[in-house]
Amino acid sequence: MSSHVSPAPLRTAVVGTGSIARSSHLPALRRLAADGEVEIVAAVDVNGEAVRAFADEFGIPHASTDLDATLARVRPDLVVLCTPPSVHREQSVAALRAGAWVWCEKPPCPSLADYDAVGAAEPGDDAAPYASIVFQHRFGSAARHVRALLRGGALGRPLVAHCQTTWYRDRAYYAVPWRGRWATEGGGPAMGHGIHQTDLLLDLMGPWTELRGMAARLVHDVETEDVSTALVRFADGAVATLVNSVLSPDEVSRIRIDCELATVEVTHLYGYRNADWRITPAPGVPEETAAAWRDFGVDEPSSHLAQLRVLVDDIRNGRRHATSGAGGRRTLELVTALYKSAFTDTTVRAGDIGPGDPYYTELHGGAPGWAPAGTPEEEDQA
């Protein structure tokens, strides 16, 4: 496909027809289809019965179990991946080579090596097809407003932040065979659950420079961790705490940023509205100033729809989407650094992890007690 995108609806293929496709991606796509922005032309799934039922239910003309054949026959403009992270690399590369843009559900890929391989398959021109990641919390109206306040210096210098994704998952959740395994889920709560809040924290705070992490397997019989914490330093000197858990009965997702002139906080679970944000001015800040800070504008909740609107507009106008390329990689890099720091008991700095580092290709890094049983590292240890 050429870098020029016609005003016709983007021909879109949905790959993976499970719960996330039904609950989040398809409603967003159908809303934009009603606006004439996209046209859902194909569905692909390894389960033939499931994909045919999905296509019949939602009036999708092409149903297939073969992604490559679908790409060749249908020639979609946009491929939406709602599949497990273990296949994101190969499916993204296939779509890019077929000339389609990619919107990939999180986690992005099981490793930085996989993510970089996807980037290497892109033509390199911002107006040409690229892969982007579902990080929808960046795209609600409140996050846009707070990001502008922080970037413009209105709240003063950010000083200290707290970011938590403290959720609860029971034993039945981990009875599903692919969960809690490095190869199929990509990681524990740092990767699979808390990555959305981590991504929003980075979007608001800017570049990080160093991290010190801890991880533990306290309850669940899994390969990955079930809780992690980290201390993070940012380029401007601010420091933050990061907590990810699936052991917390009182579930909450929260970010708090204390700046020189105000504290900003969002508290929600799986998505926020404007009302979930609070800005508390420091003593001496004029009330009219604080009132302007609290004007978040028209409420657009964080959602797949909010991000998809921006992605489609970016594609049409030849712009790099914010969660593509380096904009998506930085979040995966921080998560990778958390695992490396936790498993090696060292401080990890931004840019440290590259080709030749065991954590570049596997988030467990071959660490004793964390690498899956049967890997060369585990056998050496034995």
Automatic annotation (TrEMBL):
<protein>
    <submittedName>
        <fullName>Gfo/Idh/MocA family oxidoreductase</fullName>
    </submittedName>
</protein>
<feature type="region of interest" description="Disordered">
    <location>
        <begin position="362"/>
        <end position="382"/>
    </location>
</feature>
<dbReference type="InterPro" id="IPR052515">
    <property type="entry name" value="Gfo/Idh/MocA_Oxidoreductase"/>
</dbReference>
<feature type="domain" description="GFO/IDH/MocA-like oxidoreductase">
    <location>
        <begin position="144"/>
        <end position="264"/>
    </location>
</feature>
<dbReference type="InterPro" id="IPR036291">
    <property type="entry name" value="NAD(P)-bd_dom_sf"/>
</dbReference>
<dbReference type="InterPro" id="IPR000683">
    <property type="entry name" value="Gfo/Idh/MocA-like_OxRdtase_N"/>
</dbReference>
<dbReference type="InterPro" id="IPR055170">
    <property type="entry name" value="GFO_IDH_MocA-like_dom"/>
</dbReference>
<dbReference type="Pfam" id="PF22725">
    <property type="entry name" value="GFO_IDH_MocA_C3"/>
</dbReference>
<dbReference type="Pfam" id="PF01408">
    <property type="entry name" value="GFO_IDH_MocA"/>
</dbReference>
<feature type="domain" description="Gfo/Idh/MocA-like oxidoreductase N-terminal">
    <location>
        <begin position="10"/>
        <end position="121"/>
    </location>
</feature>
